[in-house]
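### Sample
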Amino acid sequence: MRHVTQTINEKATEASYLVSYRIAQAGEAHTIAENLIKPCVLDITKCMLDEKSAKHLSTVPLSNDTVSRRIHDLASYVKQELYKRLQKTRFALQMDESTDVAGLAILLAIVRYPYESYFEEDMLMCSPLSTNTTEKEIFNEINIFFEENSLISNDCVDICTDGVKAMTGKTAGAVSRIKDKAPNCSFSHCTLHRQALAMKQMPPNLKLVMDETNERRPIEREPISALTIETLPKPPAEDGGD
């Protein structure tokens, strides 16, 4: 009997993580699990199966606090798994500095790296810049991030940016500062940014053809993160529900 109860608790904990993962993906409020998802699941189970099955499902912990903890656990695992991968291989960075809707300066970095038989692409960092987007501050933010997560600058083989001065200045640009620590690192100008610049001077008739081509061409979108819930380890069982 104890073994059966333990198995149910394990499954309830795993189900809690799966629901929390979907809530995070959808960007919904954490309260939706307890206020809507769980009642709906219980109603469906009672109609399609029986009261006993519904009683088992009622043990799945889905309170607001539980969902918040689950999402935090998942995010922490994904970050640590990404750092472990990057500590064992070379990688390329795509960086961009921008401002959000509130006017806050932020630094975005996407990393591309080989893993097993494929190349993976993940969001590496999204950090606010305390003052403005100067060369020194961008470099310091990257440098501190690397040191805090035990990443080796020399493993960075290429940096792709939009070509602004703060990034690509020959002597004091962020890329130049990074290349001082990683001499073998190369620099590339973002192709999409160059195309966007060219489009500004494109004749209207040619721009119309380009726009229609882009609308009709199927676009295959890659997942936002190569690290998904399928890569996560099985969570430990918890005793009881919320």
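Residues 31 and 132 are 36 Å apart (CA to CA). This sample (Zinc finger BED domain-containing protein 5) is used throughout the tutorial notebook.
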